[in-house]
């Protein structure tokens, strides 16, 4: 490779291109190239090519179809003049780009690709691995040398070009060249794209590229890049003329023929695999945060309308979200009879307690639709039993009580405090921040993947890697199931029911039934905070979801359908229905009275890792390993919103009780806050240093609490402005605060408090109806084997 | 193919998972899995393969391992959903199972297999090299197969049942403030500037002691914090001062006592305070004054009071017992006097129950016969000043206090067996007690006369400390005499003559002469209690 470097070879810059290639129409392309290389003195390249031809010859046979197709794609640039040597090809490619920039519509692009003509000898030259190195080095130098205002929008194009070059090299069997290329250029990209880079680095053989899903997505889909108009024309200018941003001291060697071939290689990728979303806005409007949302292999992440051809494909998540219309995010209207009954009970209680205010609270404490929100009508809801029960009334009454006794949290007040040590700051902090009660499990052997508290905080359940669930009474009451030796006709009245209860019991109970680690447990919400829950759901690696009765302490139903591990299960806010998320890339809706699922929500490209119901249970949010979150219409089963922007799989989600925000935590260690109505990202919250396991909103939706593997519980101000914490004086207004690809290692400004624990990863955080925060985790003994 | 892959995973995959997870993902690896290993396995299976095949297979094996294990791949998913950060063998097993590959039985995360490295066989290097150049150079790894003595296992091994899972609950935060309880980790120290900048996010009270610890010597406690914390704060003051030097243990016995009763912060404060006060040296004057200032002004030291007083008392006794002639003893006593006065000045301390313990060191210093000559005067003056402050503050609650002290002082003054030093101290003490005490003791009680007679009989009037003391004591009786009419007493005027006589009678000749020599009629009259007559 070094010998082939043009700066060392005298032949590189001097000879006129016309006379360089005497063999024009030779049938064996390899021979042509070899002769060409020999003539130019590229001994090392010649040898490498010889080796490569030997190595690839067997594989060529096995994948002949791909080779032909790929060949056509790679040679798009040279389509119109197959016989002319290198320099002229550049002129042609400039034509192509000019055409591209002039017309700028996908249809014409397709035509361009389709208009590829016959294949000449020359294009074999394009396989030379060195031109990739050169091309990428030049591109990088150009991007880094560009003006400050353009650099952030140019940087995102480096990554797709890098990936394609690497995949190209691997596909052609240049393993060593690919590894050299990777080690040479990946460090500069590692900050923003480490996960994909690492994944690419594991692909070493052409067959891997053929079989690997990510690689295929790169090859078959367009990579979206957003760019301003002026930035785009600069890029086109560089690709065609090679002007601007040359590395200092590079001399003629780079702008010579070698450099041109390198640029041609870049242009091939640009033409075939990149798609530019050219905006008319100024370049400074493309901020560091938005590149995450608008850059990437988006077309498959966005659900495409059925029957859409490639012309009408959606490439912009915002366009998709917009096309789906408004959502009904308001609270559920209350059943009229239930309302009057609840009011009656409240009035009675008011008489007993001599507190005349109680009865008026129902109207006040019921959530009202926020301005701009549409409340769903009764008809929109999932079918429910027509009549309400006593437990429903109890639940509503206790909800009113909870609302009255609630501790109100106002984290936004904290931002006004100047002196953090003053007494009034302490007072504000007390008002703004919650009290957090931490439950710590000890002596857990294999690990507890999940933990949850019932809404009335009488019960705690944890699922264990050893396939069982353990239930604890937090009040110290005995948990008693039913005896197994009774006949149902003996049960006539409550007294006889009590008789068949077990005599003995303890405050903890083991529920055995699963045959794999239990990944999620959930108490049913039907009784609210009025009474202990009656049922528990659990999801496990064995592919089943199980319903447990807490009266009998036994497994009642096993819901089968997912063939793969079920990662998450959540009850709908009104009970009866529940949703599961599985490794089989679907989320499913179930009801407790049927063993088969009611709806399947399919569309994610990776595991569905978590689900979360909207508080009015009309919508279901799913988070996936394909780095996106989606919002589904529960009844229709269609995707209505897609949230793109995370740079890693989504590990946990929460929807605010007012129905407006979705918070998602990703493996990129950030928490994103999304506006569900518009599908836009409001802000990105950074601060956690390892995986985030759980998120919860306070009852007023003003505070977000997160817990994670870094042994901390963190509180975030939902309403506060995000962004990096320490701002350079005055410079922060400049628009481009952060450079592209630079991870924010420090905490963002809306992190209002951090509470460390002692070696306890927090696996669950939740708020009680009265705004007490409960967190749970497993203590990790410091000895590690 | 698949079967072979699983075999490779057995070898490499498991050795990976026992290490910590997530290696830095940016490193490129040109072959974790070497072609040589493929060849070894092939040899083991009795197949011969060529180099290119081995290389290609190695690449493929590596890819398959990544597919099973790596970041965002199967085993990692199971690890994430298991809410762990360490990958276990069960994760690999689950990953293999969902990939439709038979899991590897016999491996548990509790009992990871240990891999041993076998050194290359070097017995006959030449022959081995000739036969197979590769196998000689490459080391072989194998799973250790531990041999168990069945007898021993049956006899000795007791299988302990694991303790069941249990839970505890504690407050991680109360209204946004993390309580300092054992269940919560100690607050992380931060730099002062940083702590100030990030204070809204730090944990309220928890951050306070840290902030002020670094805040310099005279950091004021934040208002509204509890007293225990403020004392921690000031422990920090001492800590700052002494941190650089190794603290010499002082009076280990009393320190031991302290440690059993007091909170850790107060113990720390006590040891830091005492060690920065004593032993005195010229260099750490600032440290000493900082410690005294802390003692004088800080709240929350009440619990330490008995120990401090005891420490002062023992210090004084210790210094005086050794004869107290050296310069160092003088300095020690000086510091201790300062400490007493600081304790008395502290508004937040409730000293009264300890007055009976505080007075002996004070009076001992005052009346001791032989203080170090260099310090004796200053020591006695400061002791008398302290005594005076003590009496003015507390004589209202203990009316009998001043008379009792006066009696002690008078005894020391008049009884002939006492040394000069004691007497001087007694006079200073009387000055400290007040004007009336001076009049009663020195003038009417005949202290001056006795002293004067002694002087005359001894050496005819050589001025020294004692005389000065007496004179200044007498001065107390009429402090403002210099400015106004400064007429001398004239022995010719009868009224003056009477005064002179009376002076001679009351003070004795020696001191009468001294007074008359000053030529101040008003003073003389005042001594006799007659100023209002003139």
TrEMBL record, chain A:
Protein name: TFIID subunit TAF5 NTD2 domain-containing protein
Subcellular location: Nucleus
An example Gene Ontology molecular-function term: RNA polymerase II general transcription initiation factor activity
Record GO cellular component, one term: transcription factor TFIID complex
Superkingdom of this protein's organism: Eukaryota
WD repeat start and end residues: 511-558, 559-600, 601-642, 643-684, 685-719
Entry-linked Gene3D superfamilies: TFIID subunit TAF5, NTD2 domain, YVTN repeat-like/Quinoprotein amine dehydrogenase
Ranges annotated as biased composition (Low complexity): 1-12
One Pfam family named in its UniProt record: WD40
Any one Gene Ontology BP term: transcription initiation at RNA polymerase II promoter
TFIID subunit TAF5 NTD2 domain mapped to chain residues: 127-241
Swiss-Prot/TrEMBL keywords: Nucleus, Repeat, Transcription, Transcription regulation, WD repeat
Primary residence: nucleus
Organism: Tetrapyrgos nigripes
Region Disordered: start-end pairs: 1-29, 366-388
Keyword Repeat among record annotations: yes
From TrEMBL, chain B:
GO cellular component: SAGA complex; SLIK (SAGA-like) complex; transcription factor TFIID complex
GO biological process: RNA polymerase II preinitiation complex assembly
Keywords: Nucleus, Transcription, Transcription regulation
Location of this chain's protein in the cell: Nucleus
Ranges of residues in domain TATA box binding protein associated factor (TAF) histone-like fold: 31-97
InterPro entries linked: ARM-type_fold (IPR016024), Histone-fold (IPR009072), TAF6 (IPR037796), TAF6_C (IPR011442), TAF6_C_sf (IPR046344), TAF_TATA-bd_Histone-like_dom (IPR004823)
Pfam families, sorted: TAF (PF02969), TAF6_C (PF07571)
An example Gene Ontology molecular-function term: transcription coactivator activity
Primary location: nucleus
CDD domains (UniProt xref): HFD_TAF6 (cd22931), TAF6C (cd08050)
SUPFAM superfamilies associated with the record: ARM repeat (SSF48371), Histone-fold (SSF47113)
Protein family membership: Belongs to the TAF6 family.
Protein name per Swiss-Prot or TrEMBL: TATA box binding protein associated factor (TAF) histone-like fold domain-containing protein
Higher taxonomy: Eukaryota, Fungi, Dikarya, Basidiomycota, Agaricomycotina
